C-alpha cells in the first residue's frame, strides 16, 4: 500500500495516468489538505469527472475505496497545516494547557452549531416537520456515529409522539425499509452520505414510496439522490478524527430545531404528551 507517501507516489506515477486521472492528480497535489474534507461527489465535480473515475483513481493508487485514500492523505499531512476548512487556531496541541485545550474544543463545537444554523432553510424545516406529523411511522436510522445520533433523535421525539421508531441493526433497517409505505418517513443520519449501507436502505425505501429525510454534511452525496429532503449540518471532519464531538453537536442541533418546530406545530397535543412522559419518568426518581 502506498500510505508511506501518497503525494510522492502520485507524482511518481503521474505520467502513466489517464487524462481524467491527471485532472484529479493535479487537484490533489495543489489542494491535498482541502481534499481530505471533500466527499467523492464534491471532488468529482471539482475535477469535472465522474464519481466512478475518482474510485478508479484511488484503486490505481492501491486503495480499495475513496475513504481509504482520504485516510492515507490525512496521515501524510502535517497536523499543524491550516486550510480554509480547518484553521490551526483550534487545533489541540501537546503544548496546550487543559484550559487552552478546553477553549479550543468549545470554539470548535460552537462553530459547528453556527455553521449548521447558517445552513438552515426555514421552508425545508417546516416541510420536514409536516412529513413527521402526517407519517404513520418515522424511522430513525444510521450506522456507526450516525446510528448513535439516530437513537438520540428517537429518544427526543418519543417524549412528544408515539410514531417514531429506532432500529439499530443495519440488516433490520433494510428489512423495515423494504416494507415501508408512502405513509412512512425515513430520517437517516449519515455525515458522508456515501456508504453501502445508506444506499441499500434508502434505495429500498424509495422503491416503496417512503419519504426520505437525510441529515448529512454533503449536499451532493450519493444518498442525496434518494432523498426528498436534505438537511445539512456544519463542521468539517478530518478522516483521522472520525466521530468527532463537533459533528455530533451539529447533528444534535438539527434534531433540536426539528423537535421544537414539531412541538410548535401541534402545541396542545405535544404539550400533553410531554407532560405525560415527564410524569412517567418522575416516578423513576428517588
UniProtKB/TrEMBL annotation:
SIS domain location: 128-268
UniProt keywords, alphabetically: DNA-binding, Transcription, Transcription regulation
PROSITE patterns found in the cross-reference section: HTH_RPIR, SIS
Domain HTH rpiR-type: 4-80
This protein's record includes keyword Cell inner membrane: no
Molecular functions per Gene Ontology: carbohydrate derivative binding; DNA binding; DNA-binding transcription factor activity
Record GO biological process: carbohydrate derivative metabolic process
Database matches in CDD domains: SIS_RpiR (cd05013)
Protein name: Transcriptional regulator, RpiR family
Native species: Anaerosporobacter mobilis DSM 15930
